[in-house]
Amino acid sequence: MTFATQPAPAAVGVPASATHRDRICKQFRVLHLINGEHYSGAERVQDLLARRLPELGYDIGLACVKPDKFPEMRQCREAPLYRTPMRWRFDLAAVVRLCRIIRDDGYQILHAHTPRTLAVGRLAAILTARPLVYHVHSPAARDSTRSLQNRINVLSESLCLARRTRLIAVSHSLGQHMRLQGYGAERIFVAPNGVPRVDPPPRNPPRGEWTLGTVALFRPRKGTEVLLEALAKLRRSGHSVRLRAVGPFETREYEDLLKSSASRLGIEDAVEWAGFTRDVNAELRRFDLFVLPSLFGEGLPMVVLEAMAAGVPVVGTRVEGVPEAVRDGLDGALAAPNDAEDLAGAICRIMTGDLDWRSLRGSALRRHAEHFSDESMARHVAAVYRDVLSETGLFRI
């Protein structure tokens, strides 16, 4: 699969879209190994795949090694969920439990989603002689502001990725990143993230006050401080604009930092901290613009795709996979990361009509439908499974 204006780099393989062959083959069983302490972008991918892949011939189970938010928040309740808590990265007791699940319930493929689950999955794959697939949601070296943890994750990936392991990157830029880390192009597949279609009702741009919205697990790499500065600049310039921030805070300390920043900037009355929601689409209907001011670490943000599906123009930053979804001036506007002036300018281009809000909305809706649906994501992942099973001799038409 390639994007209309963003062809895949030649060095990075993209699987052919799955066809009716996936539907007529017998059902295979795939065990997804996930963390589970949060319910944000990567967890949404796991949840949607659990719902969509059975339609393509693959029954999904979910083994949760940090069973906190995900077991409660997940939407796909049909997929069996196994709680296999890990005390540390190479918890051998967790490996034993996983091996028992794999053998007892007949799972034929293991699919890991994080460096932690890759480590335990590698051991379980060896002990049960099962193939392993690794889903790369963000660059391990730039996943957080904790440099030591990032280095450990990079080392863990390099130690645990066997030569035959297929890598699924959620964007072309992330696939290229993995190639530059030394992983062969023949084992890297691009399966862009996707979200369901929602058929949003007709809308017009606001005539008075604009509501900016952002949805995130608020943590330093999301750049929310930069968005607060941009909001303050817009208001000082005479623009009638507010911010609705939806999502939990990673830590109480970071929550205090953001709220004190809003107070220092004199915009605390213009910012509403809405907390976590199960219904992102309901929140998107309240936004006139969606803003994601990430600094780094974005593979292909699910919430950007959800905004596009809802017909809400997006203002994002030029980090990793974001420009693959949002084309500047066509589907939304892009700004430099960690630059409040540029972010305010990108927002202002839409508020003042330099970029037509209705045209951006229509283009975003079409782009989502063509490239970033959950069905498309599942078809690409199913194609990787088919490739793995063909090599093992298990896949037969």
What does this structure look like?
With 397 residues, the chain is of the alpha/beta class. It has two domains: 21-194 and 373-392, 3-Layer(aba) Sandwich (Rossmann fold), CATH 3.40.50.2000; 210-371, Glycogen Phosphorylase B (Rossmann fold). It is 41% helix and 16% strand. It has 15 helices and 13 strands. It has helices at 21-24, 41-52, 69-73, 92-105, 115-128, 147-160, 172-180, 224-236, 252-264, 280-284, 302-309, 322-325, 340-351, 357-371, 374-392; strands at residues 28-34, 58-64, 81-83, 109-112, 132-136, 166-169, 188-190, 210-215, 241-246, 271-275, 289-292, 314-317, 332-335. The strands form two sheets. A seven-stranded parallel sheet has the order 3-2-1-4-5-6-7, with helices on both faces. Helix 11 (302-309) links the parallel strand 11 and strand 12. Helix 5 (115-128) packs parallel to helix 6 (147-160). The radius of gyration is 21 Å and the shape is globular. It starts with 20 loop residues before the first helix and ends in a 5-residue tail after the last helix. Mean pLDDT is 89; it is low at 1-25.
